[in-house]
Structures are given as C-alpha cells and as structure tokens.
What does this fold into?
Amino acid sequence: MLSFIARRLALLIPTFFGITLLTFALIRLIPGDPVEVMMGERRVDPELHAQAMERLGLNKPLYQQYFDYIGQLASGNLGESLRTRTSVWNEFTTLFPATLELAFGALIFAGTFGLLAGMIAALKRGSLFDHGVMGISLTGYSMPIFWWGLILIMLFSVNLGWTPVSGRLDLLYDVPPVTGFMLIDTLLSEEEGAFLDALRHLILPAIVLGTIPLAVIARMTRSAMLEVLREDYVRTARAKGLSPTRVVVVHALRNALIPVITVFGLQVGTLLAGAVLTETIFAWPGIGKWLIESIGARDYPVVQNGILLVACLVILVNFTVDILYGLINPRIRHQR
Amino acid sequence: MTTKASLSTTASEPTLYYPSPLREFWTAFSRNKGALAGFLYMLVLAFCALFAPWVAPFDPSEQFRDNLLTPPAWLEGGTTQFLLGTDEVGRDMLSRLIHGARLSLLIGLASVVFSLIPGILLGLLAGFSPTRLGPPIMRMMDVMLALPSLLLAVAIVAILGPGLINTIFAIAIVSLPSYVRLTRAAVMTELNRDYVTASRIAGAGTLRLMFISVLPNCMAPLIVQATLSFSSAILDAAALGFLGLGVQPPTPEWGTMLASARDYIERAWWVVSLPGLAILLSVLAINLMGDGLRDALDPRLKNAA
It folds into this structure.
C-alpha cells in the first residue's frame, strides 16, 4: 500500500510544476503591456511604469522570472490582491469555507438522492420509475445550471417567497465567524433562528450545484448496481435465503459503490466549476465569485494564484480518491 | 472496421448476408427512440440556424420601442406579431433565439473541429511513441485536466479577452485532453493487433500505419466523444456568455441573452426562461443522439455510463 501511495505521489510532482508553468504563463500571455492592462489606463507615466515592472519582476529574463515565481511559492508567498492589498492566501482562506459548505451541501443532496434513485431504478429495471429516473437524470445532465438557478429563484424565492434570493445569512443576524462554515457558526452563536436562516440560504444553491452530480451519480449507481446484481455471489446470497434487503444493501451495494466513489471524486472538478456559476447567481461569497470578480477587475495576482490554488485542490482530491480506490479495490493497488 | 468488412467481402457472398455498414448503423441508431428524437430536433435547429435570416420573422436587433417586454402570444397582452414576446428593448424573442441557434451551433462545431484534429494528432503521436513523445504529452494533458473545464476556459478568456473567436478557442483548448487520451488509449490497443504487425511487415511506413491502418479503427469512441463535447461546448459557451466573458451583447447568444434578462426576473419570465430552455433542449437533444451513437457504434460501452 505504501509503495502504491508513493508511486501516486511521484506522479503529482510533474503535474504540479506543469500547473505552475500554466499560471506563470497566464499573466505573461496577456496581449499588450501588462502594466497598462493592470492599471487600466493607456500611456502610464514612464517612471511609474518602470516601478511597476520592477515590482512585478517583469523586467528580468523569463527563466529568471519563473524561478523567482517558484521561489515565491515555495516560501508560501502567493502575492497580494491589487484591489484590496490583502494577501491572496488570506482572501482564499476566508472565502474557501463558504465554497466548501456549498459543495458539501450539494454533494449530500446529490449523493443521497442519486444513490437512492439509482438503486431503486436498478432494482425495478424497465419500470416506469426506471424510465423516469433515466429521463430526469439525462435532463439534469444537460442542464445549464445558471439558468436552472434563475428558474428556481423565480419559482421559490420570488413567487412563493420560501427561500431568500441571495447571500448566506440575513442581515438581521450578527454571527461572529469562528469556523467560516455558516451552519456551524450560527449554531455556536446561539442567536435565535440564525441556524434555520442559514439553512434556508443554503438549500437552493446546494440544489442547483448538486443537479449535475445528482444526474451522474444516479446513472452511475444504476448501471453499477445492474452489473453487480448479475454476479454469482449475489445469486449465492439469495440462494442462502438472505432477505432481499440484506442482499441489496450489504452484498450488492458495497461493490456497486466502487465506481460510484470514483465518480464522486471526479465530480469535485464539476462542483468547483459549477460553484463559479452558482455563486455568481446567488451572490454567495465563495472562491468562484471571487475569481470571476477578480477577472473582471483585472486583478491578475488573484486570478493567477487563485487558479493555482483551485488546481492544487482538484489534484489533491483526485489523489485522495485514487488512494481510497486502492484501499477498496485491491486489484488497482497491485497494478503496475 | 473497414479492414474487417473488406476481409468478409472476399470470404463469402457479401451483399446477400451483410447490410452496408451505414445501413447497419442506421438500423441500430433508429431503434433508439430518444436518439431519433434528438436527431430530428437537431435537424430542425440546424435548418433554422442555416436559414436564420429567412426563418426569423424580424431582424434580431430591430427594436420595437412601443412593445417593450410584450408577453408571448398565448398570454394576456401578447400579440401574434411577436409569438414568443419581446425583451426589455422591444426585440423579438423568437428572432433572437433563432439567430442564437446559429451562434451556438457555430461555436459547438468550430470548437469540436479545432480540438478534434490536434487531439487526434497528439494522441497518435503519444500512442506511437510511448517512451519519448508519449509521457510529456500525457503529463501536459494531466495538467489541463487538473483545472475544471469552465474555469480553464474562463482563465483563457480572461487572458485573451471576451468575444466569439476567443470563446471558440478557449473551449477547443479545454476539450483537447479527452481526445488525446481517447486516441492514445485506442491506438495502444490497436497496435497489439495482428493486422498492424501484418502491415508493418508488408512495409507500411509510420504515417501510413497511423492514418490508414490504425486511425479508422479508433474512430468509434472519438465520434461519440465529439458529440458529447459538442453539447458541453454549447453549455460552456452559454456559461461564458452568462458570466459576461463570452460573445458580447447585443449579439443574440443564448447565454448572453440570459445575463441581460436577469434584471427582469420578477416581471417577465419569458425573457429569462426561453433562452435557457433553448440551451437545455439543444444540449439534451445532442446528448440523446450521443447515447444512440454510442450504442450503435460501440456496443461494448452500452452499460458503461
């Protein structure tokens, strides 16, 4: 197992450097003069221009710039935002819990309903329910989620008034940020009704963000389950006289979950991309909205290292899924 | 596939027993009702897109200042002049949607072509040279896959600036890795087959092996992937437009239309609903077609996804 982890870790190194190359190139591929672009004006005063070039290190040869960049990253310096003058790392860590909370909400929604729907569809193969689940999941899979968000807001927030339109918490409540997770912070603060309010804020965005993963998980669970139910050991379990529930939940589901877990892991990328859209629609103060706003404001240090951080996150999650997969499935572990 | 077909031609009386590959494909494809429906929808959409100026009742940017936010014809206050209503500056929704189909299909088609061709080339190189060219190419693709596709597209557009061409370019780059991986994987399995060894011994050069012997046998998964990335290209283009980073207004792109309609969400549902519905239906139709194609071309994958 250890050598398996070591091999996977070794594969991460070139990928990581590749990504630094990408984010390094990002800021240098901007057509035209980077200083003028960043300052948002033409013909910057030559002296200021030289100063800015100096500060950004753009006056050195390219390879030198790259090594400086790597050195900077190695010392944990991710630069500072041109707009707020706070460090990119600080901004990222304050905003990240919001995105994480949203993503967790979405995964719980998608996981629960996806597994259930997929399982029942597989057990009742060919039934109306099965066709319904497959049809709905194909629709969900094709959903432009930014539109889906707007439709849900129109229905539940504007017309029915059930959920708030945007944000994480009503302005009425004053909750000190302890963990950054609104659901936990509101519970800690002991403010009356704050927790429920935070929950009501979370529901719609989580549903919107969870829609595509829900569709994928339902489809995947169904096909994995169908595959497993055909296996000999399931027939053996049935023949032994085990109850149908036990056969399905204990014997079949466990093996059917292997591919589903991989899909879960692969959905993290989808979730982060979806978070960009979902956070924009619901004015959810997370990293997706942060990145889009930074791009709009030409805040290049934030764009550059924000993207680097997100990429590292995805790599880490994929790595964890790989390891988990190896743990569950010995065949993968011993593959050379 | 072609090799097998020609072998069987010489072996027995072909025409009596074997339908042509195209006919065989169509029989398998049309058995899938969903795929057929998707195909028909796409035919109609493609027709609308090609002949947009003649199909659409009005010019997409013509503003009828007396008819701002007119509801669709079947609602109270709607007129038959504007079947699907008008938007905030009085432009005909139907005409804008029809012209929008043009853009979406163009972006989808162009980005598929621009990623399919380099993707196949890189995949062939990586497959034929597993020790030298392969690893660097595949590591590069891993890097691109580490970023969520929409975020990578956003980053590329952030560098190049918004617009139609840059949108196509960004989406093409984003969908490149899946083609490279698929081609390489298919090439690696094909290279172990006897027919490749045979043509090698017969003196076929690397280029001939690549494009004439091996590539045709790798096409099935690539065609399926092409339809899938066609639909995700339409989705990504609309998402970019919605974020204000894609095709710029007043061009009637579906995502861009949605972005400017957001402010009217409380007053005029049709301005918000219709462009999104257009996106959803097109993507759904393509995905249905993709499923049908997969089942018809590559039956082994039938239960895979």
About this structure: Chain B has one domain: 36-57+67-304.
